[in-house]
Design a protein that fits this description.
With 429 residues, the protein is mostly helical. Helix content is 78%, strand content 0%. It has one domain.
């Protein structure tokens, strides 16, 4: 009877109950009906236990670093750098949008932050240049999913915490897939630009202008180098790296670039705290949810069902990608990883799939789900920023989603794409 908490949870989602409450109410009701009051107490105790973790402290620190960079005008410098490099191409501002997302990914690791920060600048600019608002919102939402793929990545920190994997290995494994998504989106922009005669946003920049834009963007672009370099060299842990990123953002904003004021800090801290609280509450609820998943024997039931479909790992990977894509339409990436990771991960590791490779498959697939109708979170953020209806953006984003789905299958069936850098650096076998 306990296993019925899963359909009940889906029912709660369909009627619009927030995910946090659904993940606690569904198992809580079934435990109570099943007479398992002791496990019911354990369920709600695990909400706190799920959040009380040193590795998870990296998430609020990275979010704070992203807020500091955004408030300090760092985002504008990245956009100016991108314009100097790619603004002269046909469809220049759309290319700039994608490249800016790739660069911003190395600062915040958040798709929502990317959509909000870049969308508020680039969507009006693209509309002014003659792009439709729905196209501008769609490319902003589609490119923002690069944020959690290129390190640092909040969802990879969550996956590493839940599954006991190396954060550094996951960060390294996400570099090439993130670049692939960005390049794929640029190819689609090029195709659409030629077909619909998109404008270039500016004349080709001189080498002097490019050099000046590079100097302005130098300190922001140094952030991911410091983070990854420090982790790989063993100077600090991922959590300490996140704290270093915050300190670096404050020093650059207040004293080097002088684009951040002390009076800005309370609002920055408040925004980062609210975002972090949302994520950590979801993590805590998902860890409690995971407890009931184990008690219900759902992993064993699902494993038997999956292995009953086929013994071929390639066929199963194809089917799991379809499942994850459907899950991503309705459930945020963090909770989905915590719920499904412990169920699916061991099955595929037993089939011979490298755990880091499977982590990237799952992370990228669920990240793309952030931009997938009907419940993709960044679609709603893009709608809020642009003023365009979610339904309209959902139709306009379909060509870009097709590219991202193609990249997902490419990552799935060509493991070297994600595994080469971790292997070269000694973080994977």
């Amino acid at each position: 009877m306990l296993v019925w908490f899963l359909p009940l949870f889906l029912l709660f989602l369909m009627i619009g109950l927030p995910v946090f409450f659904g993940m606690l109410a569904a198992p809580g009701i079934m435990l109570w009906l099943n007479g398992q009051e002791r496990d019911l107490i354990l369920l709600y105790r695990n909400v706190y236990n799920g959040m009380a973790s040193f590795p998870l402290m990296a998430i609020p620190f990275f979010m704070l670093a992203g807020e500091l960079m955004n408030r300090g005008g760092i985002t504008m410098r990245l956009v100016e750098f991108s314009q100097a490099m790619m603004g002269h191409f046909r469809g220049g501002l759309a290319h700039v949008n994608v490249l800016s997302s790739m660069l911003f990914a190395g600062l915040s690791g958040s798709a929502v932050a990317d959509t909000s920060a870049l969308g508020s600048m680039l969507i009006p600019a693209m509309e002014k240049e003659g792009y439709s608002r729905k196209f501008a919102a769609a490319i902003t939402a589609a490119s923002s999913v690069i944020g959690p793929i290129i390190p640092p990545s909040g969802i990879m920190i969550i996956y590493a915490y839940v599954m006991g994997e190396s954060v550094a290995a996951l960060f390294l494994a996400g570099i090439v897939p993130g670049i692939l998504v960005g390049v794929g989106l640029m190819v689609m922009v090029k195709i659409m630009a030629d077909r619909y005669d998109f404008p270039a946003s500016r004349q080709k920049a001189s080498w002097g202008e490019r050099g000046q834009a590079s100097l302005k963007a130098f300190f922001p672009l140094l952030t991911p180098v410091i983070i990854l370099g420090g982790i790989l060299l063993g100077v600090f842990t991922p959590t300490e790296a996140a704290a270093v990123a915050v300190a670096y953002a404050i020093i650059i904003g207040l004293f080097v670039l002088r684009t951040l004021k002390v009076s800005d800090l309370p609002d920055v801290l408040m925004r980062a705290a609210l975002t972090s609280a949302t994520v950590l509450l979801l993590v805590g609820a998902a860890m409690a949810f995971k407890t009931v998943v184990s008690l219900s024997y759902a992993p064993q039931i699902l494993a038997d069902f999956i292995l009953g479909l086929s013994q071929n790992p390639l066929v199963l990977l194809f089917l799991i990608n379809l499942l994850l894509f459907l899950v991503g339409m309705f459930l945020d990436a963090g909770p989905a990883i915590i719920i499904l990771g412990p169920i699916l991960g061991p099955i595929f590791v037993d089939l011979g799939i490298d755990p880091i490779h499977f982590a990237i498959i799952m992370s990228v697939n669920l990240t793309v789900g952030l931009a997938t109708p009907p419940m993709g979170l960044v679609l709603f953020v893009a709608s809020s920023v642009s003023g365009e209806r979610v339904e309209t953006i959902s139709r306009a984003i379909l060509p870009f989603l097709a590219v991202e789905i193609f990249v997902i299958f490419l990552i799935t069936f060509v493991p070297e794409i994600s595994m080469t850098i971790p292997r070269l650096t000694g973080f994977a076998d």
